Amino acid sequence: MDLGDFLLDKYAKRQEVVQNNGSAVEMEPSESLRSWEPPKELPELPTESALRRAIAQALFQTGCIRVAEIIARRWRFPSAVHKRKAGVFGPRFAILCYHRIGTHGVPLYSGLPRSVFEKQIVYLRKHYRILSLEELLAERESPKSDKPGLAITFDDGYADLYSEAFPVLRKYEVPATIYLVAGAVQSGEIPWYDRIFVAFQVAPADQLMNELGLPEPTRLETPQQRLVAAARYIFTLRAFSDTDRLACCDYLQQRIPIPQSALLNRMLNWNQIREMQSAGISFGSHTVSHPVLSRLSPQDLLRELRDSRHVLENELQRPVLDFSYPFGTQDSFNDATCIQLAALHYRSAVTSLPGLNTRETNPLALHRVTYCETSSLAIFAARLSGLFLSAAGNTGVV
Ligand SMILES: [Zn+2]
């Protein structure tokens, strides 16, 4: 029996108990939960080896990052046939993927100080043309300059995009696109995976091990270990059918209450969104509830793609044409997802698959430069150049 079966078996048994007793087990939050504060420091998830970091640092400090870009192209497209097929001779456009700017509280898996973000923006303005997503999509067909262009995107719609990212974007007059989880904005509640990240921070280790049947040797001694364990747990749930995933989330929610301080005011609200829109920030859909789209029934898939767009268009009073796949990994969407997006007349959809985009890239499966929340400007520059993009890989945490 694997972890998934184990979880579902536990959930089924609990449901039987609930039915026999006639009432669900409600747990009152303890005083320690009420006063819980998220850990201030959580390290970046490891994405680059020490060797790659050293190479990136050396290239950055010596100003050789441009040479590295040429080398990276040759490494990645060795044959002339492949080069023509991949459109490597044409312009390549980067789409940067961020989640949050700021360092404290939900989301726990992502943190980037505002000062580092500002340095990144200064670097981008110096070496690239920062385009709106709409401009980038148009320039893929007819480029306007030899200078490489890129667009900045943020997934999920966390509140600190307003308090931390927006002031920097406005200061440097930089366009960006934010993909909103419509249900999270409507309800003001954090998405399901964030509840899991927080639950893994607050629950006693033995409770997590026993209740969730976590495999040995899961280490839960430090906040960092709990972060990794939660990411693995979410990764496991993503392979379930949506019904089973929801059942497991419900089970966890019943068993491990999470503090109100982690829940409130963590997502953007409509006033903040409208203010940003009037300052030139654009918005796209990131579904209603952030499910794994490839696990949905056709009806639920339609509802997530269509209803999220309707909610956003009603609130923003302008067309919403761009989409971001939750998790964005290869297994999180499929042909049915793309067909439904096209039928609903979405013009673009971004993945979390690392890479740059050429004229030939499917506009409904655009690549992005992921893990931009790095404190190392050298690593950031190396990824943008194309070096390490494939090596960085992606676990699609969210
Ligand atoms: Zn997301």
Describe this structure in words.
With 398 residues, this protein is of the alpha/beta class. It has two domains: 50-188 and 265-392, Glycoside hydrolase/deacetylase (TIM Barrel), CATH 3.20.20.370; 189-264. The chain contains 19 helices and eight strands. It has helices at 3-21, 31-34, 50-62, 65-76, 80-86, 114-127, 133-141, 160-171, 182-187, 192-202, 205-212, 223-237, 242-255, 260-263, 270-278, 298-316, 335-343, 377-385, 389-392; strands at residues 94-98, 129-131, 149-156, 177-180, 282-285, 322-324, 348-354, 366-368. The strands form two sheets. Strands 1, 2, 3, 4 and 5 form a five-stranded parallel β-sheet that branches. The protein has a three-stranded parallel β-sheet with strand order 6-7-8. Helix 10 packs antiparallel against helix 12 (223-237). The chain is globular. The model is unreliable at 22-29, 73-88 and 390-396 (pLDDT under 50). Bound molecules: zinc ion. Residues 155-156, 286, 290, 326, 398 line the site of zinc ion (ZN).
What are its keywords?
globular, binds zinc ion, 398 residues, five-stranded parallel β-sheet, TIM Barrel, alpha/beta, single chain, 50% helix, three-stranded parallel β-sheet, disordered C terminus
